[in-house]
Amino acid sequence: MCYYLVNGIYLEWATFVKTISMPQGEKRKLFSERQKSTRKDVERAFGVLQSRFAIVRGPERVWHVDTWKNIMYACIILHNMIVEDERHTYNINFDYDNGCNEVSTTDVSIAPHPIFTAT
């Protein structure tokens, strides 16, 4: 049986674990804090997938649960592959020699671009 971390808008079901609104005691405070943190992490991760893949934003009710699960796995795997492929672009070089903190990630040409040159 699975449990789902939810907020107060969901129904009272045995599988829904809602946030404790006013936790009393150290154990309940710690549980509430960890639950909120985990729920926020999941919401952020899902937001990243929604922003990257339109299929995640669409209506999911038309597919069977196994199909939806496979779509989510595929999106997560693709996202991880994209992040891994773009990892080399994360290396930011700071130029400390000239006294300022300019960021240099690529070579930039200051010459006018031929498309934008007035004729």
UniProtKB/TrEMBL annotation:
Pfam families: Plant_tran. It comes from the Eukaryota. This is DDE Tnp4 domain-containing protein. It comes from Cajanus cajan (Pigeon pea).
